[in-house]
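User: Design a sequence. Structure:
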């Protein structure tokens, strides 16, 4: 009897120790993801400011030289490159967001796959060839950030399976009430024993230090939480295919981030105050808005903005969030003390939510939020909506 009790106690002790190790690994992974998110957010903000200056200057060239086909062509090409850069930044931020920042919405799954494709095309060794195939529209209701994380995890797993190079095929389609997404590589493959455990937390066939063993288990959990399934088929020496099955929306809903084309809106002397410490953005934006018929003033700090606001009483204030001295959020509070009806729109390289989301009190009182870099039409539509209220 005592021998049985001793064995039971030893087993319980071993289980407790294993649980502790599991919790420690989960904590380390969570802290690592939070750190990555904070770093990604800061770096993305700086790059977006750079892209904002570039895109605004190029759009100014297009506006000022409408009859020069060469300038129009080259400016349009460079704007497309800047857009691609911004799309990559947005994709990186989606992968790094905290759980609490993720939201369920209707979106185009094809766009999320394009985000993944752009990132891995740049990040993967050129020895790995990547082929893609999916239709332009795959509406889905769910958490875009989480599914983007799944796609990235599956792509990374394929890369690790092809250290000497190979082919990764990413396909997606809608059929029989399902959305089907596949990641297929011709790498080293897995034996039957490994396949059975591939979604187990902390299981990894990689060398120590090369992985936490959490990536595929997290991916599996995310897909299951979306009412779907994640399966794997693999043959040693031939390759592996991961297949995601997701429920197809019963109604083809409008994809939220599809923007309707609109005619360019021209101002008629409305006063705009731009508050930003980056002259690379302020100068071209001021000229551009002036060219479009607005009366533009600029301030390079929150303190200067307070003085100029009292002097000119602008119709709209375009406020950067992060400036030395008095930052944008503090300046907004002071402006609203001066004039509770002040119409303020934030322009920022940060997202409106996420790691660097704005204070709820501020969010409730501003009239709009535009993430840099922005399209001229997007900004002028926002200005018109704000001034019409």
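Assistant: Done.
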């Amino acid at each position: 009897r005592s021998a049985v009790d001793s064995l039971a106690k030893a087993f319980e002790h071993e289980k407790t120790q294993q649980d502790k190790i599991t919790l420690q690994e989960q904590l380390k992974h969570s802290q690592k993801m939070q750190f990555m998110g904070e770093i990604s957010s800061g770096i993305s903000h700086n790059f977006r400011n750079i892209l904002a200056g570039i895109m605004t200057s190029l759009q100014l060239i297009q506006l000022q030289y409408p009859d020069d086909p060469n300038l129009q062509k080259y400016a349009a090409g460079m704007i497309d490159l800047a857009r691609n850069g911004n799309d990559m930044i947005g994709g990186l931020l989606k992968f790094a967001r905290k759980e609490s920042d993720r939201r369920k919405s209707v979106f185009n799954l094809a766009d999320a796959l394009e985000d993944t494709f752009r990132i891995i095309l740049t990040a993967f060794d050129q020895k790995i060839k990547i082929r893609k195939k999916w239709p332009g529209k795959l509406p889905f209701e769910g958490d875009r950030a989480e599914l983007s994380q799944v796609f990235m995890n599956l792509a990374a797993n394929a890369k690790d399976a092809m250290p000497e190079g190979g082919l990764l095929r990413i396909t997606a389609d809608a059929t029989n009430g399902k959305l089907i997404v596949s990641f297929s590589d011709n790498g080293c493959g897995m034996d039957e024993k490994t396949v059975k455990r591939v979604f187990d937390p902390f299981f990894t066939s990689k060398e120590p230090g090369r992985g936490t063993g959490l990536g595929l288990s997290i991916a599996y959990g995310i897909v299951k939480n979306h009412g779907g399934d994640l399966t794997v088929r693999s043959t040693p020496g031939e390759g592996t295919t991961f297949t995601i099955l997701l429920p197809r929306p019963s109604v083809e809903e409008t994809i939220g981030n599809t923007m309707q084309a609109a005619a360019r809106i021209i101002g008629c002397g409305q006063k705009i105050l731009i508050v930003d410490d980056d002259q690379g953005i302020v100068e071209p934006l001021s000229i551009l808005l002036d060219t479009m018929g607005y009366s533009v003033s600029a301030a390079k700090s929150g303190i200067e903005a307070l003085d100029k606001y009292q002097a000119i009483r602008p119709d709209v204030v375009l406020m950067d969030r992060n400036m030395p001295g008095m930052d944008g959020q503090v300046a907004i509070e002071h402006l609203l003390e001066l004039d509770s009806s002040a119409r303020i729109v934030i322009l920022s390289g940060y997202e409106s939510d996420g790691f660097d989301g704005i204070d709820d009190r501020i969010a409730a009182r501003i009239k709009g939020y535009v993430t840099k870099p922005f399209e001229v039409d997007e900004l002028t539509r926002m200005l018109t909506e704000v001034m019409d209220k």
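The longest helix spans residues 2-64. The longest strand covers residues 166-175.
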